[in-house]
Write a structure and sequence with these properties.
The protein is mostly beta strands. It has one domain (24-189): Beta Barrel (Porin). It has one helix spanning 2-18, and strands spanning 22-36, 42-43, 45-59, 62-79, 82-100, 105-123, 126-129, 137-149, 154-163, 176-189. It has an eight-stranded antiparallel barrel with strand order 1-3-4-5-6-8-9-10. The two termini are 32 Å apart.
Amino acid sequence: MKKLYLLLLTVFSLAAANAQVQFGVKAGANFSTFTGDNSEGVKTKVGFNGGAFVALPLFSSFSLQPEVVYSGQGFKVDEQGASGSLNANYLNIPVLFKYNNPSGFLAETGPQLGFLMSAKIKSGGQSEDYKDFLNSTDFSWAFGIGYLVKSVNIGIDARYNLGLSNIAKDSGDEKVKNSVFQVGLFYVFGGGTE
């Protein structure tokens, strides 16, 4: 573990010394649900995401992009006359390996660690805290594409966060995982990503 930490520290140091580090902000919409056992009748819930990122150029057209993003997730249920929703708010920290094409197109992938901030179940005008029934952390893998208009430093992106860890606490053999599709806009301060 120490060797991996030292390797990452060295990469960050070299990237910062040899290239311009860029900062940005992002915001968009989430289309979330969950996959796994007992997911019948579960429908997509629309939420919001927003946060900030730093782009650390590595070499040629590649960069490492850590982010801190608020993400409103969960799902809706509408079956046999019963309707309700689970609203789960996460603070997600993806660390993405990113390819930046000179044309402005980009592709990204990497791990994401999520921290559950709150969770509530809403049904029939009632709201109940549900945080104690969910694990406090979530691990997922992100896949994304986008396009940056370099003349104005504004871009659009789409990302899918594939849940890898079970979010249900004390669920026995039952597996429940987050599934989130995101679309949004981002702004890069001080110039487009090269």
